[in-house]
Task: inverse folding
């Protein structure tokens, strides 16, 4: 079946090969723009196979085999031919076949590199409206071409070239796509690339780079919502790196995470995680019984001899560390010289036991299995150094890119702050202007209202004043009238005073004198007060005589009214004249 698939795929590759093949390593010159042939049956078929490959690579391989014999395969242009070569390599890789079109993939790498970044279009004449999306799609294809080319190099043990291609693929993706755009297929691609780098660094015992790449792979796996099996495999790789660094608690953490998200005890991944956790726990806490029990239980559940002997190495290493050398030999000797690295681990442990027991012959025999490791270690040292330099350069590139993005973000933020500041200032000025205008308009309206109110109040007040003046005039007229009436009444009282006084005297009524005095006061108001003020030493009788004299009463009549003798009255008159200087009361009547 593999032979059949290989023959058919060779036909596919021949059909995908664009005309005019380039020599290996040659870059394809940027072709002139031609009318786009997108939308052809060939292109639609390839895009359909591509979409299927991300979810079902085995089904996609079958569809690709069918496509090889179709008429659509004969209509491919240069772009589709190189696109086809990249997908063939990916399908071989994802279906666990060795890559057989290295030369064609290398040409595809050159082709896609040549068309990426052509100012919004590609070599096939994409419309300006679709330029950006086309360029980004071609950038993704270029990154995929580098990635699968790296996988081909890795299969042929060209680790430096493989690492360079993987790192280039990452840089191309990070150059063309923002972090937020790394979703879907792009996120899965980033996870796969970092995972491949993690495997490469792990194989060279470069733990720090391997840990970095595995963690990056996990981050993109979560974004792409990759299956738990894929995440669990990456967690297993991470745990192994921490084991190599003797950071056993960290290693145990990742193994435990695997058992949480992948609890299916019937799978190899689950059994691997249990065994690795047992070895880490033993190294960290020397829980011998629990660790041995887990390893022996997993050995009994092994699906095949290779897996069972792999568990034996772990069991033998614990017995060797405990000093139980006979038990260690039981588990290590069946593995000796077999199964690659496991056999060499067993040889190393058995050699150490032989040296402890003083059996140099066996120690030398076991050492023969390790000679290749010693020579390859010296040979790989330079390669590891070069790989580390490449990784450090990539980290430096990422740091510089992050720094450039940070500066760009800061500049953009500064521009935004400036724009916000200007906009805010303009808005504030507008608000202030509107506020001042509104305040002035309000004050103007208030002033107009106040003026109108004042005018109304002034008018009301004027009306009130006019009314008051009118009322005062009325009162004045009334007073004038009253005064006239009072004057007429007073004049009448004065005219009638002699007659009324005479009537009172003749009437012989009680209190004639007081009533006569009242009549005088009524006719001449205030006269007696003025007299008293002018002559404060006058007695009451003298004041009464002053009035009776004015009323022309005779001495005899005065004596009758006062109830005195006539001589006494005459004596009072004499005293009155002395005190008043013989003045008359008439001068006090009109004051």
Result:
């Amino acid at each position: 079946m593999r032979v059949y698939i290989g023959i058919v795929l060779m036909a596919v590759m021949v059909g995908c090969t664009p005309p005019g093949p380039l020599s290996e390593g040659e870059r394809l010159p940027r072709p002139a723009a031609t009318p786009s042939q997108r939308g052809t049956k060939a292109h639609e078929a390839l895009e359909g196979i591509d979409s299927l490959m991300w979810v079902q690579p085995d089904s996609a391989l079958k569809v690709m085999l069918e496509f090889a014999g179709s008429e659509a395969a004969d209509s491919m242009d240069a772009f589709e031919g190189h696109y086809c070569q990249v997908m063939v390599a990916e399908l071989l890789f994802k279906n666990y076949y060795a890559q057989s079109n290295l030369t064609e993939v290398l040409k595809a790498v050159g082709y896609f590199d040549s068309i990426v970044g052509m100012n919004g279009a590609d070599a096939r004449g994409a419309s300006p409206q679709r330029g950006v999306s086309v360029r980004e799609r071609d950038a993704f294809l270029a990154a995929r071409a580098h990635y699968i080319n790296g996988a081909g190099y890795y299969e042929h043990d060209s680790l430096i070239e493989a690492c360079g291609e993987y790192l280039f693929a990452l840089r191309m993706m990070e150059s063309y796509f923002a972090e937020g755009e790394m979703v879907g297929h792009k996120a899965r691609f980033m996870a796969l690339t970092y995972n491949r780098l993690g495997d490469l660094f792990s194989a060279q015992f470069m733990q720090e780079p391997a840990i970095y790449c595995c963690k990056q792979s996990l981050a993109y796996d979560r974004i792409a919502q990759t299956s738990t099996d894929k995440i669990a495999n990456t967690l297993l790789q991470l745990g192994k790196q921490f084991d190599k660094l003797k950071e056993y608690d960290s290693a145990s953490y990742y193994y435990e995470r695997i058992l949480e998200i992948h609890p299916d005890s019937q799978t190899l991944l689950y059994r691997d995680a249990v065994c690795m956790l047992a070895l880490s726990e033993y190294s960290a806490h020397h829980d011998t019984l629990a660790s041995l029990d887990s390893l022996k239980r997993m050995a009994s559940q092994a699906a095949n001899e290779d897996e069972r002997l792999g568990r034996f190495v772990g069991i033998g290493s614990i017995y060797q560390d405990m000093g139980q050398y006979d038990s260690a030999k039981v588990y290590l000797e069946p593995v000796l010289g077999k199964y690659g690295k496991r056999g060499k681990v067993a040889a190393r442990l058995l050699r150490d036991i032989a040296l402890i027991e003083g059996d140099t012959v066996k120690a030398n025999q076991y050492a023969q299995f390790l000679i290749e490791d010693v020579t390859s270690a010296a040979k790989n040292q330079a390669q590891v150094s070069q790989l580390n330099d490449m990784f450090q350069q990539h980290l430096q590139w990422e740091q510089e890119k992050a720094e450039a993005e940070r500066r760009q973000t800061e500049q953009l933020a500064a521009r935004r702050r400036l724009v916000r500041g200007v906009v805010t200032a303009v808005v504030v000025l507008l608000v202030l202007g509107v506020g001042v205008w509104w305040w002035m308009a309000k004050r103007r309206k208030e002033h107009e209202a106040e003026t109108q109110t004042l005018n109304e109040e002034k008018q009301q007040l004027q009306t009130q004043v006019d009314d008051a003046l009118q009322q005062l005039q009325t009162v004045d007229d009334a007073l004038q009238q009253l005064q006239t009436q009072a004057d007429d009444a007073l004049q009448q009282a004065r005219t009638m005073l002699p007659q009324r006084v005479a009537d009172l005297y003749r009437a012989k009524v009680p209190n004639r004198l007081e009533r006569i005095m009242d009549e005088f006061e009524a006719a001449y108001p205030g006269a007696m007060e003025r007299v008293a003020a002018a002559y404060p030493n006058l007695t009451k009788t003298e004041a009464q005589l002053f009035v009776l004299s004015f009323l022309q009463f005779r001495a005899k009549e005065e004596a009758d009214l006062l109830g005195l003798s006539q001589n006494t009255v005459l004596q009072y008159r004499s005293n009155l004249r002395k005190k008043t200087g013989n003045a008359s009361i008439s001068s006090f009547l009109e004051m």
Summary: The chain has 24 helices and no strands.
